[in-house]
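User: Please predict the structure of the protein below. I'd like the answer in structure-token form so I can feed it into my own downstream comparison script.

Assistant: Understood. Taking the following sequence of 196 residues as input:
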Amino acid sequence: QTAPPDWLLVQVNNALDQITPYMTMQQDHFTVQIKISDRLDALQSSLTNVLKSQSSYDAMIPTVVDNIVKQNLLGNVNFPSGITFSDQDIRQAVQSALPLDWYQSTVAGIVQQVFDYLKGTKDTLSVSISLADRKPLITTAIINAASSKMAAYVNSLPAATPDQLKQLLLNTDLGALVRPALATSLSDNLTLTQSQ
């Protein structure tokens, strides 16, 4: 699809035309040029289709999640005393808000940004991924995970009277504790540079 047989045949013939004078000692060097610029659109389309697969999602989404966490969340979200949240816990919560269908809907835009660089329409390679519609889902996923941790923590405490437990639970609004920090920490776009 990206390199159909007729295109390949033209490229091989052109290469042979360049190599033949060298092989017959008419020239002391040769240069083979293969013009791929006219095949970039086909390559872009093929690559987009390949990257929409489940296996590509499984390979790519950890990088996206790691960058979201590093750029937006690490050190910016504080949980109530007694709740420990590892980087992996945060990564799992964020990934749950970025399912395969979301990834597949963003692939074409990501590939377009890369090919804009390859085609020379952009001077630098960076990819921007909109997270605006994901922010509420990421926030909810982290709050749900924190709520589960809170429940586990409460269950690990020594037995309390029903009134003590009721007071503790009624006075703890985990969403109110976490939501403001997440709302200000998560940006609307994730930018990945060439090194990422």
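That's the full token string. The chain has a mean pLDDT of 81.
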